UniProtKB/TrEMBL annotation:
Highest taxon listed in the record's lineage: Eukaryota
Name by which UniProt lists this protein: Potassium channel KAT3-like isoform X1
Gene for this chain: LOC107783633
């Protein structure tokens, strides 16, 4: 039976069972920990078994991923290797077929006969529903109605022994030698075995593939040599054969002498050495040699192609890195970029290749959002909770925020944020260290520019290899707006952080000093909320003071829009750098028209959206809307 369509593992439903949830690593707690187990082969990769507490299948039904059944299949692969060697060998050397190898063949055939019986009890995967079928009648009908059953039976029957029982004589005719070749049908198990090994990430793909190629080569050499010897034994004139000219009376000589000569000829022919000491003599041998050499051309191409692919695969990232470095060197040379900037570009590119397996986006981009969120929560939740800005916020806020963050790596001495650039993101240091010009080391940066919505006040440079998480300004604003309480907590944390800055640090940011002075004046008049808990004596314990008014949240995060100086119907497919101007939305239409006149050099009278609808109320606009003024 071909097991390529059988199921991966069972889960109980009313009649069929889903295969996926029971793919567990050995001694696991119930989680899928080996992704190599999710494959189309009959069995999961080695090390993947059904968990101890898994629900059982129906009585007398075997799960194809059952550990004992998997070991049974692996044992049969060993027997297949013997069958692949013995079948051509017994065709060429009839004495071995009726002598010492006969009892071994009977034992091997008995094991495969047992496997035929077991196959009637092995559940399979229905391709139309991808559910595990465990009904005995369906399993039996599927097995019998396919080619697998008659071929399994034909390759298992000991025809020579049956003939001896019926006739009472031992027949050494060539027909039984060719019937024994039916056992080569079992080789499909070896192919499935190597397919599973190639999918198992715990085994080297290179060495697995390499062993497979060696096995293919040895089988080809062995089969050709045995068949070539068989041609010599059946030729009417033994002295006019390739081996008879070198070994007189070779038919009566030792079996292993003939086998050695056969393997010597086959290997020298495959390797295209051709010493000439063993060569075709009669017509039949010459015809066979022609076809064998043609076959060797294809086999050699197959071997060379696979080996080349394996070797190139290990060096493909190196080639890509060299090409990328050459492109950067060419670009910096043509544009005459400074040496320091060129070094930063090269350092970033080198780090990108060295940490390719650690880049979160490349690993997670094809996963569902729920899985990405769970992974980000596991990796970065503690980092967010320990950041001063998010201390005390709700669980919902952390869960929503962690799903939007992006992880990045920066090599040493690379600018992460440039002074006076537009504040699109702020960053949290996960590992490593960064340095703010004139302020020293920081664990969070870019927050002042984002929250006040002003150009970044400082340049931030990495001190050593650093991993940071990036939080987008737009996502942060959308998340804070509906969560008012969390917004107040973030505001209080931010104000407390600003108050903790040193005087020399505040001197670099006059806007912050003015804001703190205005806030102190407001706190003297504003009502405060005492957020506290009652102790056992029933007395209130003040923990934090938050202003009832939140000017920062309302004034520091204005709506940003993109304006264009033409009618929306005149949009061009490729506008390049003139696609629009990013501005803060003013309070009135007149101010917006004035800004557009300043940006585009002409006075407009009408404001429209991309679909042509005219804008009458600026309050209806949203973040990143495109406005067309003409």
């Amino acid at each position: 039976m071909s097991y390529s369509d059988t199921a991966r593992s069972p889960v109980p439903l009313s009649e069929t069972r889903s295969p996926m949830p029971l793919l567990f690593r050995r001694h696991s707690s119930g989680e899928i920990r080996n992704i190599a187990s999710v494959s189309s082969s009959i069995l999961p990769a080695f090390g993947t078994v059904i968990g101890e507490n898994s629900i059982k299948l129906k009585r007398f039904v075997i799960a194809p991923y059952d550990r004992r059944y998997r070991l049974w299949q692996t044992f049969l692969v060993v027997l297949v290797v013997y069958s692949a060697w013995a079948s051509p060998f017994e065709l060429a050397f009839k004495k071995a077929a009726t002598g010492g190898l006969l009892p071994v063949d009977l034992v091997v055939d008995a094991f495969f006969a047992i496997d035929i019986i077991l196959t009637f009890f092995v559940a399979y995967l229905d391709k139309s529903t991808y559910l595990l079928v465990e009904e005995h009648n369906k399993i039996a009908f599927r097995y019998i109605s396919h080619l697998w059953f008659p071929m399994d039976v034909a390759s298992t029957l000991p025809f020579q022994t049956i003939n001896r029982i019926v006739t009472g004589k031992m027949n050494r005719g060539p027909v039984f030698g060719f019937l024994n070749l039916l056992r080569l049908w079992r080789l499909r198990r070896v192919s499935e075995f190597f397919s599973r090994l190639e999918k198992d990430t715990r085994f080297s793909y290179f060495w697995t593939r390499y062993c497979k190629l060696i096995c293919v080569t040895l089988f080809a050499v062995h089969s050709a040599g045995c068949f070539y010897f068989w041609l010599a034994t059946r030729y009417h004139n033994a002295d006019s054969t390739w081996i008879g000219t070198n070994v007189p009376n070779f038919k009566t000589r030792s079996i292993w002498l003939g086998y050695t000569y056969s393997m010597y000829w086959s290997i020298t022919t495959l390797a295209t050495v051709g010493y000439g000491d063993l060569h075709a003599v009669n017509t039949e041998e010459k015809i066979f040699t022609i076809f064998y050499m043609l076959f060797n051309i294809g086999l050699t191409a197959y071997l060379i192609g696979n080996m080349t692919n394996l070797i190139v695969h290990t060096a493909v990232r190196t080639f890509a890195m060299r090409d990328a470095i050459n492109k950067i060197l060419s670009y910096t040379s043509k544009n005459r970029l400074p040496e320091g900037l060129k070094e930063q570009m090269l350092a970033h590119l080198t780090l990108k290749f060295k940490t390719a397996e650690l880049q979160q986006e490349q690993v997670l981009e094809d996963l569902p959002k729920a899985i990405r969120s769970s992974i980000s929560k596991h990796l970065f939740r503690t980092t967010l909770e320990n950041t001063y800005l998010f201390k005390g916020v709700s669980e919902d806020f952390i869960v929503q925020l962690v799903s939007e963050i992006k992880a990045e790596y920066f090599p040493p001495k690379v600018d992460i944020v440039i002074q006076n650039e537009i504040p699109t993101d702020f960053y949290i240091v996960v590992s490593g260290a960064v340095f703010l010009s004139k302020l020293g080391s920081q664990e969070m940066f870019g927050d002042i520019g984002v929250i006040f919505n002003i150009p970044q006040p400082f340049t931030v440079r990495s001190k050593r290899l650093s991993q940071v998480v990036r939080i987008n300004h737009h996502h942060f604003k959308q998340l804070v707006q509906p969560l008012k309480e969390d917004g107040k907590i973030i505001l209080a944390n931010f104000v407390q952080h600003l108050k903790g800055l040193k005087m020399e640090e505040l001197a670099e940011m006059p806007l912050i000093s003015e804001f703190l002075d205005d806030l102190d004046s407001e706190l003297q008049e504003a009502t405060v909320i005492e957020v506290g808990t009652q102790d056992q004596a029933g007395q209130a314990k003040q923990e934090n003071i938050i202003p009832t008014t939140t000017p920062v949240l309302s004034t520091t995060l204005p709506t940003r829009v993109i304006i264009h100086g033409y009618h929306p119907d005149n949009r061009r497919p490729n506008e390049g750098g003139n696609a629009g101007k990013l501005i803060h939305l003013p309070d009135s239409v007149e101010d917006l028209l004035s800004i557009a006149e300043t940006k585009f050099g002409k006075r407009g009278t009408t404001i429209a959206m991309a679909d042509g609808s005219q804008v009458e109320d600026l309050a209806a606009l949203r973040e990143d809307d495109h406005l067309y003024i003409f």
